[in-house]
Design brief:
The protein is an alpha/beta fold. The chain has one domain: 3-Layer(aba) Sandwich (Rossmann fold). It is about 40% helix and about 25% strand. The chain is built from nine helices and seven strands. Strands 4-3-2-1-5-6-7 form a seven-stranded mixed beta sheet, with helices on both faces. The radius of gyration is 16 Å and the shape is globular. The model has no long low-confidence stretch (mean pLDDT about 95).
């Protein structure tokens, strides 16, 4: 049996919105954080620098409130159906997120994902310190992780599907035959061979 792999971004892909903006809203700084996120997703800012800057603004948010926000994030329309549909076609379905495991580990269980890779919000005494570390910190992190998974799982580029919306998803595209730009920024659409502009993840199944 041929091994097949589908990789989804989390923020604005599997989930309808940006996790950092939900945190920022709690702190009354949504517009400030959103402006940085928008520039990063359009490729105007280095992803690592933008992530460090945005997370630093979360200092003081309680871990309890952080997790409460993460667990109540809204899934994108069609998220459960597309995961189930791909698994029926023999795909392993994994989430790569420049966001945080507080959210991705919760939704990986909820959606039945085969794995998830994201970043870790540092906390001390149950309060966010404004520091972050993890597996998805850089512009090229997703592409590097995809390459490693393909080697471990013996999956070819021809049998790889990737789905994202922003500049930090670009590094995955050269390692996948099916490159989906989902309600995406122009920088990603320019490199995609499947473009979906409607908030309905099940439309991806039309291309499988």
């Amino acid at each position: 049996m041929t091994n097949k792999l589908a990789i989804f971004d989390f923020d604005s892909t599997l989930m309808d919105g940006e996790t950092l903006e939900f945190f920022a809203e709690e702190l009354g700084i949504r517009e400030k954080v959103k402006a940085i996120t928008d520039r990063a997703m359009h490729g105007e800012l280095d992803f690592f620098e933008s992530l460090i800057e945005r997370v630093s603004l979360l200092k003081g948010l309680s871990l309890e409130k952080t997790n409460e926000i993460c667990y109540s994030l809204p899934l994108m329309n069609g998220a459960e159906n597309v995961v189930n549909g791909l698994k029926e076609q023999g795909y392993k379905v994994i989430c790569f997120s420049g966001g945080f495991r507080n959210a991705t580990s919760h939704f990986a269980k909820k959606l039945g994902l085969d794995g998830e890779f994201a970043n870790y919000l540092h906390s001390k005494d149950n309060v966010l310190t404004g520091f972050v570390g993890g597996e998805m910190m850089f512009n090229n992190s997703k592409g590097e992780m995809l390459k490693r998974l393909q080697n471990i799982m013996n999956v070819s580029i021809e049998n790889t599907l990737v789905v994202g919306d922003g500049a930090n998803d670009l590094s995955m595209f050269k390692f996948a035959n099916k490159k989906v730009a989902f309600c995406a920024k122009p920088i990603l659409k320019n490199e995609a061979n499947i473009i979906i502009d409607k908030k309905d993840l099940t439309l991806i199944l039309n291309y499988i």
